[in-house]
UniProtKB/TrEMBL annotation:
It holds the Pfam family HMGL-like. GO terms for molecular function: (R)-citramalate synthase activity; 2-isopropylmalate synthase activity. This is Citramalate synthase. Keywords: Amino-acid biosynthesis, Branched-chain amino acid biosynthesis, Isoleucine biosynthesis, Transferase. Residues 5-271 form the Pyruvate carboxyltransferase domain. InterPro entries: 2-isopropylmalate_synth_dimer, AIPM/Hcit_synth_CS, Aldolase_TIM, Citramal_synthase, LeuA/HCS_post-cat, LeuA_allosteric_dom_sf, PYR_CT. Belongs to the alpha-IPM synthase/homocitrate synthase family. The keyword Amino-acid biosynthesis applies.
Length: 539
């Protein structure tokens, strides 16, 4: 028989405690809607009263199927729950559920709160009873529970019992400092259940300080807890919380969870995981983590020749699930780890069929390996790889020839008498028999200079005659620089990501001892690849 497992999302509260993350009200609304579509049971929206954004968000929150939850802390000593203004702001948000964090580690009660152990028990009892009396579903986040258990298990348990007796629907065991390991979590949750707090009322809230938040959450479920708290992409204080982006596919696809439990997340929603994860990164303006389980762009990337060879025979040889199950895609990148199998797969993706054993395949592999030895990296720059292969196969048309280019960077005063930098680029290309000179400044008068590479990109893309229509919707979206060897022989590798109006995105690479030359090579590849993709004919 299957058992119900509840998912509680705290992206909008603990996720907002991530260093560098600050959601606006509009962003919180977008994320709440995405979480609701995903099917989590609870959405913790923030701490009303703690800051204007959270207060405004609770006023503007969307209608959701998920139970909307406001977060706060137990009442402070010396006043009743009824008269605590911080708690009143939380209750005034009017949510059907309220989650209050309270101390369960004796050391924190005496040191952080500076109150007696009995006063803290009163605060838990009184605050939970207050929520229940107001008709709210009450959750109690037992802060530092695992450390508290190890220091004084009798007291930690008394805190849970106080919340239980006052009517808390859920008692959530928090590994607040994130230092507890999975086996210990399993043992302690088992002992808590044996001590009389039923698993159907227990939740788990883990932090990832040892990289084990997901494993710890699963260990708590193995021991009997029936609610998991987590965040999208594992956002959260310090190293983050248990990632729901990892947990949800695990619970739905992996045994014993798949057969034992049912969650509110429908199997049909699973292929949305990559989209939801990337949407959050977009909102945060973060580059998605390639190595994220299930949803990262490398989660199904098969770089090594042995892997790629077997994958082409049967993907199950090196994949734990089909990538489509979570909305991801298989990638077989080219690099110096590759063999002919990677190469043929990549060429086929680019629409180039080459027969097995064709001697040109070995030649392309040799060139890739030689160039990677010089500092190129093709596994993150597939468009440059395709151009290299086409060149060796005689399939690269000539579009234009770069005769020369120049960039200057000048510091000068603007009209407000402020010192500003101005980058100016000149590019001369020959298209057919015609020479074209283009000049561009990456400065619009008053605002900040956008740099020499931006100026070069604008000059190169300014007038390419017959090709202009194809490149007009191109834009440079990311620029990464890496020094591949230090000292006076330093080599610079530049990777440029470009995008067009149809949302296609491609990466190109350039390498040189000179940053500008490396950038120019990558820019040139970006334009050439776009012309090829658009089926433009050469001169
Ligand atoms: C484990 C977690 O992550 S819980 C979530 C934590 N989240 C946050 O802290 C973000 C939102 N917090 C805030 O905006 C502010 O801290 C506020 C508005 C809640 C409080 O601000 P301030 O009144 O200025 O207090 P400050 O932040 O300096 O300190 C927290 C106070 O709460 C007390 N406190 C901490 N936990 C609890 C608790 N569970 N119950 C009652 N009081 C508590 C502390 O002892 C401290 O009191 P003190 O000032 O008398 O020493
Ligand atoms: C409540 C919470 O966020 C914690 O204890 O980590």
């Amino acid at each position: 028989m299957t058992e119900r497992l509840y998912l509680y999302d705290t992206t909008l509260r603990d996720g907002q405690q991530t260093q560098g993350v600050q959601f606006s009200v509009a962003e919180k609304i977008q994320i709440a809607k995405a979480l609701d579509a995903l099917g989590v049971d609870y959405i913790e929206g923030g701490w009303p009263g703690a800051n204007p954004t959270d207060s405004d968000f609770f006023q503007a929150k969307p209608q959701t199927r998920a139970v909307f939850t406001a977060f706060g802390m137990t009442k402070r000593a010396g006043r009743s729950a009824e008269n605590d203004d911080v708690l009143a702001a939380v209750m005034n948000a009017g949510t059907p559920a309220v989650c209050l964090v309270g101390k369960t580690h004796d050391f924190h009660v005496t040191t952080a709160l500076g109150v007696s152990l009995e006063d803290n028990l009163d605060a838990i009892r009184d605050s939970v009873a207050h929520m229940v009396a107001k008709g709210r579903e009450a959750l109690f986040d037992a802060e530092h529970f695992f450390d508290g258990w190890k220091a004084n298990r009798g007291y930690a348990l008394d805190c849970l019992r106080a919340a239980q007796a006052a009517g808390a629907r859920w008692i959530v065991l928090c590994d607040t400092n994130g230092g507890t390991l999975p086996a210990e979590i399993f043992a302690i949750v088992s002992e808590v259940i044996a001590a009389g707090i039923p698993g159907e009322r227990l939740g788990i809230h883990c932090h990832d300080d040892t990289g084990n938040a997901v494993a710890c959450s699963l260990a708590a479920v193995d021991a009997g807890a029936r609610q998991i708290q987590g965040t999208l992409n594992g956002l959260g204080e310090r190293c983050g919380n248990a990632s729901l982006t990892t947990l949800i596919p695990t619970l739905l696809l992996k045994e014993p969870y798949r057969s034992r439990f049912v969650t509110n997340v429908a199997a049909e929603t699973l292929p949305q995981m990559v989209r939801i994860s990337r949407r959050l990164d977009d909102i945060l303006n973060r580059v998605p983590l390639r190595s994220s389980p299930y949803v990262g762009s490398s989660a199904f990337a098969h770089k090594a020749g042995l892997h790629a060879s077997a994958i082409l025979k049967d993907p199950a040889t090196y994949e734990h699930i089909p990538p489509e199950a979570v909305g991801n895609a298989r990638v077989i990148p080219m690099s110096n780890q590759a063999g002919q199998s990677n190469l043929r797969a990549r060429l086929a993706e680019a629409g180039i069929e080459v027969a097995p054993g064709d001697p040109r395949l070995s030649r392309i592999l040799e060139v890739v390996k030689e160039r990677e030895d010089q500092g190129y990296a093709y596994d993150g720059a597939q468009a440059s790889f395709e151009l290299l292969a086409r060149r060796e196969l005689g399939l690269l048309p000539e579009f234009f020839e770069v005769k020369r280019y120049r960039v200057i960077v000048e510091r000068r005063r603007n009209r407000y008498d402020e010192m500003v930098s101005v980058s100016e680029a000149v590019v001369v290309v020959k298209i057919g028999g015609r020479k074209v000179l283009s000049v561009s400044e990456s400065f619009d008068g008053d605002s900040a200079d956008r740099g020499p590479v931006n100026a070069l990109s604008r000059a190169l893309g300014k007038d390419l005659g017959p090709y202009q229509a194809s490149i007009d919707d191109m834009r440079l979206v990311d620029f990464k620089v890496r020094i591949t060897q230090g000292g006076t022989d330093a080599i610079t590798r530049v990777i440029i990501d470009s995008e067009d109006g149809q949302g296609n995105r491609w990466s190109t690479v350039g390498v040189s001892a000179n940053l500008i030359d490396a950038s120019f090579t990558a820019l040139l590849d970006a334009i050439t690849w776009k012309l090829i993709r658009d089926g433009v004919r050469g001169i």
